[in-house]
Each structure stands twice: as structure tokens, then as C-alpha cells.
Amino acid sequence: MTDMADMLTLTPSAAARVAAIAEKQAKPAILRLSVEGGGCSGFQYKFDLSDGPDADDSVSETDGVRLVVDPVSLDLVAGSTVDFVESLGGAAFKVENPQAAAGCGCGSSFGI
């Protein structure tokens, strides 16, 4: 496990939302962010609750909630901030990725 506090940030708003979801599902407050091929811009973000970090994961912690990312995904999201936003269109986790050269209107996919 690598400490990635400088590479990836989980906002307090996102941490609070993960904690609430984890409590409802009786799981640890660990959010896994991964990147998959696809989406309208080439890559898409995937969020899951995790039972724990894998040996090669990078880990960031905010307010007792951990964010874990695998090494391949970390290359694509390093420097990003994961936030939880609520708007008239709904509520969702949002990744502010400084590496993304292109994105889509829904904010769930990106291109580099």
C-alpha cells in the first residue's frame, strides 16, 4: 500500500457520503476508484465500496474514510479530487481530473 495523500484527494463531502453509504450497507468506509475503458470520452470512472485495500493499492484518507486506487488507474487519475455533488440533476461522485483533456457532460467519462 502506498500513501497517496499528494496524488489524490477525497473531499469531506465525499467522505461523509461514503461513510453514510457504508454504514447503511454494514461495510467498511472504503471507496475504490478505478478507471475502465469506455464511456463517451474513452475512459470512465467506476466507484465501489471495498472490503479493504489490495497490497499494491494507493490509499488516501479523509475524516476516517479511505479512498483506494489500483496502480493502473492511479496513472490516469493522479492529482485528482473526488467530490460528492448534489444538484437539481441528482447527486453523484465527481472526479476533478487535471489530466483529463476531454470530458463529457455527465462527468463520468474522460479522455487524456
TrEMBL record:
GO terms for biological process: iron-sulfur cluster assembly. GO terms for molecular function: 2 iron, 2 sulfur cluster binding; 4 iron, 4 sulfur cluster binding; iron ion binding. InterPro entries: ATAP, ATAP_core_dom, FeS_cluster_insertion_CS, HesB-like_dom_sf. Pfam families: Fe-S_biosyn. Residues 8-107 form the Core domain. It comes from the Bacteria. PANTHER family: IRON-SULFUR CLUSTER ASSEMBLY 2 HOMOLOG, MITOCHONDRIAL. NCBIfam families: iron-sulfur cluster assembly accessory protein (TIGR00049). This is Iron-sulfur cluster assembly accessory protein. It comes from Qipengyuania nanhaisediminis.
